[in-house]
Amino acid sequence: MLTIEDLTKVYPGGIAALSQVDLEIPVGMFGLLGPNGAGKSTLMKVIAGLLEPTTGRVLLDGEDITATPAACWKKLGYLPQDFGLYPQLTGEEMLVYLLELKGIDGGTGVRKLAAALLDRVNLTHAAKRRVSDYSGGMRQRIGVAQAIAGDPRLIVVDEPTVGLDPSERSRFYRLLAELAQERIVILSTHIVEDVAVLCPRFALLRSGELVAQASPEQVQQALDGRIFQARIEPEELTAIEANHEVTQSFFVAGRHHLRIYEADGHAPEPFRAVSASLEDAYHLLLAGHELERASGPVAAASHGDIVRAAAS
Asked: Does a structural domain hold residue 311?
């Protein structure tokens, strides 16, 4: 269990990147969702022991990461958002170098460990190719390989699918899902699809505050009967946006479609009721809406108070 207690981080100048964040994250995949600037990367750095919080603490299986970060690093695998590689090295050479920096050889030697890790992330076929020739997804898999070295208890991945094409993203999903079977994996992202596909539970950060904890299913159920969709003409857009809460705007076969939220369950023509998605809930939570379910609220009340979702 990873426990985050009353975590606050205030940077010089009084900028609060995190404000009184409380979370409990069990074994499995957990999503940390929020827009750019919400405080996700700051939280990940604190969890990874790379940044000292202003107040609060982080406990991994009862051990305080914030008090003795070096003592917990062997239990941690971290893939930051900006993961630098040396393009002139081969994939094998790059991974060996990273393992040597981490001081991990697996008991069999660093080259044997590197070979095993490359196989784990399906890069054996490209081990002798230069990193400069790797796709974005292949580079991310090198990052995952170094993160899982030493069989860590906790893996933190920060915006891992940004820039990946659909096939690479699908491969990455499979790899992360496999890793989460026996350990805690925190997926920090602003991409709602990543959380919807991978995470049985997630938390939403907005301006450094935790505004919701729930499962994707819970927030979707909270919107049952309140999301409507229609194809609209360009000249209708301004009026609809002015008079309705638009949760999504997208194109299908070149035609503009809108999804709107109606709290009373009634929408004007030509809108029709549709199943809610996590994307709809994400927009509404960021806008400060409270999403009520039969078993209780899933969003923050006013003044930033945190209201936890009922357990799944």
From this structure: no
Contact 29, 200 (CB under 8 A): yes
Asked whether the beta carbons of 217 and 49 are under 8 A apart, the reply is: no
pLDDT digits (tens, 9 = 90+) for 175-214: 889 889 989 999 999 999 999 999 999 999 999 999 999 9
Here the CATH number for the domain that contains residue 76 is 3.40.50.300
Domain count, the chain: 2
Show Cβ contacts of residue 133 under 8 Å, excluding neighbours closer than 6 positions: none
Contacts of 194 (CB under 8 A, 6+ apart): 31, 161, 173, 187
Strands 201-206 and 209-214: antiparallel
Whether 279 and 287 have beta carbons less than 8 Å apart is answered as no
Q: Which SS3 state, helix, strand or coil, does residue 209 take? A: strand
What are the tokens at 49?
Answer: 């022991």
Q: Per residue in 266-299, pLDDT tens? A: 999 999 999 999 999 999 998 888 776 544 555 4
- What is the helix (H) or strand (E) element at residue 8, kind and residue range? strand 2-11
Residue 82 identity (one-letter amino acid)? D
Q: What is the pTM of this model?
A: 0.84
Separation of alpha carbons 36 and 188, rounded Å: 11
Q: What domain range is 189 assigned to?
A: 2-217
Q: Would you say 256 and 232 are in contact if contact means Cβ atoms under 8 Å apart?
A: yes
Q: How far is CA 41 from CA 48, 164, 227, 229, 282, in A?
A: 10, 19, 31, 34, 19
